[in-house]
Amino acid sequence: MKNLILIFMAAVLAFAGCGRLEKTGRNVVRKTGELAGKGATEFFSGVGEGIRTVTEGQVPDVLTAIATRKSVRKFDPLRKVDDATVEKILRAAMAAPSALDKRPWEFVVVRDPKQLAAIANKLPNSRVGNGAPLAIVVCGTTDNGIPGNGKECWIHDCSAASMNLLLAAHGLGLGAVWTGVYPGEDRIAAVREILAIPDGYLPLNVIPIGYPAENPPVKDKWNPAKIHADRW
User: Fold this and answer.
1) DSSP code, position 87
2) Would you place residue 193 in the very low, low, confident or very high pLDDT band (cuts 50, 70, 90)?
3) Is the peptide bond before 203 cis (omega within 30 degrees of 0)?
4) Any residues with CB less than 8 A from the CB of 181 and at least 6 apart, and which?
5) How far apart, in whole angstroms, are the C-alpha atoms of residue 164 and residue 148?
6) Once rounded to an integer, what is the mean pLDDT over residues 15-23?
7) What distance in Å separates the CA atoms of residue 162 and residue 103, rounded to the nearest whole number?
8) Burial class of residue 106 (count of CB atoms within 10 Å of its CB; 0-12, 13-18, 19+)
9) Residue 44 and residue 184 in contact, taking contact as beta carbons nearer than 8 Å
10) Count of the separate structural domains present in the chain
11) What CATH number does the domain containing 126 carry?
């Protein structure tokens, strides 16, 4: 009987210790988030702390990132974007939802000045020639294995990934702008040729990224008249 009591007491102490460890872990995560900086930068950290930050009640920081994002079309050509930052942006893009979780997206990161110049020449409205040190071309495949009419789902999936990408860039202090490629046949052909995009894949857009050389105003797009309750 004495041995049973000792075993029970040891189990209680172990459980209490686990609780303290868990609480300590939560505090470490919270402090880490505070030191690293709240908001979109933490959310798109790519290491998981951001998810915990959101679950701990800092959702307004994410909403602020969404509300303050803007299209930047001029960039500082002297400031480069390092590989670690690009990876964070791509991690955010790949965190997007997709139909049946098929993830049809592919991303071409263009840094070569000759390639950027070629895109700027063929697609002058892409803003790639405005000092951007890199561009990310979001592509998708129509052969995504979705039955029925699912072949066009790549457009929705890659659009979701593109929005995540834009928000991540903004949260990391960068500027970016979505410039369309699909469905323009001439634009598709030009980008396909420059980047050697294989058959079965289509470029959705070209997104130049860099440190802003302009500060356009944030647009307030809220319009209650666009909202319909229960039915149109």
Assistant:
1) H
2) very high
3) no
4) 123, 137, 187, 188, 191, 203, 204, 205, 206
5) 27
6) 39
7) 13
8) middle
9) no
10) 2
11) 3.40.109.10
Please tell me whether residues 51 and 78 are part of one structural domain: no
Please report the pLDDT score of residue 65 as a whole number: 87
Same domain, 41 and 145: no
Pair 160, 50 in one domain: no
pTM attached to this predicted model: 0.75
**Pair 60, 12 in one domain:** yes
Question: Does 56 reside within a domain?
Answer: yes
pLDDT band of residue 26 (cuts 50, 70, 90) is very low
Structure token digits, residue 140? 């998708």
User: Which domain, by its residues, includes 22?
Assistant: 2-64
Instruction: Identify whether residues 140 and 103 lie together within a single domain.
Output: yes
| Amino acid symbol at 162 | S
Share of the chain above pLDDT 90, in %: 66
A 10 A CB-CB count for 7 gives 10
> What burial class does residue 3 get, using C-beta atoms within 10 Å of its C-beta: 0-12 exposed, 13-18 middle, 19+ buried?
exposed
* Other C-beta atoms lying within 10 Å of the C-beta of residue 10: 10
First to last CA, the chain: 72
How far CA 163 is from CA of 12, 51, 110, 169, 184, in Å, comes to 49, 18, 19, 10, 20
